[in-house]
């Protein structure tokens, strides 16, 4: 590589990173493939100077390319079923051993509904599957925070973020019982955020993201049409996975130390809209 190429690479790296997370250590749940928001978050955190551990359910580790990402980011993968406390305990223990201390941030990017996958209508749900949806998509968040608190695994002024969606507040018929799962997720952020803030100054928030083209999101019935609708409805258009990752970086940084127990809309303005002329003119 000649001097010009080296200089260009250096300038590019300087533009990409200003060290917002320099010296910080975090755990990223849910990086399945390069379309997933968690994958983008992992890359952005690394660019901003953080060390990270990647984790996903053991069954998910057999798919996608998480080990490829780990190699790229010079880190390791620790499998963990987030519905099992013993797996979470092992994940946090291994992470602290790997980092040589506590973690500074955690991303919870976990969601799954068998009712959605099996295309069951909202008025004809399988209730055992619904319980599984809640356990994976929401209760796992409480289990993660409770386990981390008991193990004293997060540094003071640490940050925990979970990814949500506006169906927690509004009705989107084809989102099925995932809407209730996201409502529960956001409630856990508020309730546990109080306790974690009082005990260790750890902040807890959810980010309500635009419809995003991911492997999981694309499985929702009518996703393509709704993605286009939301894009037209939002003054800024739909927020991309990359933009969401940038937002997560700010939430993990020291710039947002006093933000907690919030559901933060990252959707190009969609959540504040009533009607858009672009929709009426269609």
Short description:
The chain is an alpha/beta fold and about 280 residues long. Helices cover about 45% and strands about 15% of the residues.
Could you describe the 3D structure shown?
The protein is α/β, with parallel strands linked by helices. The chain has a single domain, classed as NAD(P)-binding Rossmann-like Domain (Rossmann fold). It has eleven helices and six strands. It has a six-stranded parallel β-sheet, with helices on both faces. Strand 1, helix 2 and strand 2 form a beta-alpha-beta unit. The longest helix has 24 residues. The protein is globular.
Give the total of beta strands: 6
List unreliable stretches of 5+ residues. Answer: 10-15
Mean pLDDT: 91
Report the CATH architecture: 3-Layer(aba) Sandwich
Roughly how much helix do the residues carry, as a percent range?
Answer: 40-55%
Report the CATH superfamily.
NAD(P)-binding Rossmann-like Domain
Assign the CATH class.
Answer: Alpha Beta
Q: How many domains?
A: 1
SSE series: HEHEHHHEHHEHEHHEH
Strands side by side in the biggest sheet: 2-1-3-4-5-6
Principal-axis shape = globular
For the sheet with most strands, the description reads:
6 strands, parallel
Radius of gyration: 19 Å
Query: What percentage of amino acids are in beta strands?
Result: 5-15%
């Amino acid at each position: 590589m000649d001097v010009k190429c080296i200089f260009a690479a250096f300038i590019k790296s300087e533009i990409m990173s200003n060290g917002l997370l320099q010296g910080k250590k975090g755990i990223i749940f849910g990086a399945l493939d390069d379309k997933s928001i968690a994958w983008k978050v992992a890359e952005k955190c690394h660019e901003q100077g953080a060390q990270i551990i990647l984790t996903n359910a053991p069954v998910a580790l057999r798919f996608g390319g998480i080990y490829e990402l780990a190699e790229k980011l010079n880190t390791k993968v620790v499998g963990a079923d987030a519905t099992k406390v013993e797996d979470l305990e092992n994940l946090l223990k291994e992470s602290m051993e790997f980092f040589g201390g506590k973690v500074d941030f955690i991303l919870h990017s976990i969601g799954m509904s068998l009712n959605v996958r099996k295309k069951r209508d909202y008025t004809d749900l399988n209730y055992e599957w619904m319980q599984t949806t809640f356990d994976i998509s929401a209760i796992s968040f409480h289990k993660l925070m409770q386990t981390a608190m008991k193990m004293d695994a997060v540094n003071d002024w640490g940050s925990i973020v979970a990814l949500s969606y506006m169906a927690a507040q509004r009705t989107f018929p084809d989102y099925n019982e995932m809407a209730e799962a996201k409502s529960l997720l956001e409630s856990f952020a508020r309730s546990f955020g109080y306790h974690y803030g009082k005990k260790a100054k750890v902040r807890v928030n959810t980010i309500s993201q635009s419809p995003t083209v991911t492997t999981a999101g694309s499985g929702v019935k009518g996703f393509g049409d709704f993605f286009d609708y939301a894009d037209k409805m939002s003054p800024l258009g739909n927020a991309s996975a990359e933009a969401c990752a940038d937002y997560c970086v700010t939430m993990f940084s020291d710039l947002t130390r006093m933000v907690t127990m919030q559901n933060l809309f990252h959707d190009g303005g969609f959540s504040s809209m009533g009607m858009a002329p672009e929709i009426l003119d269609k």
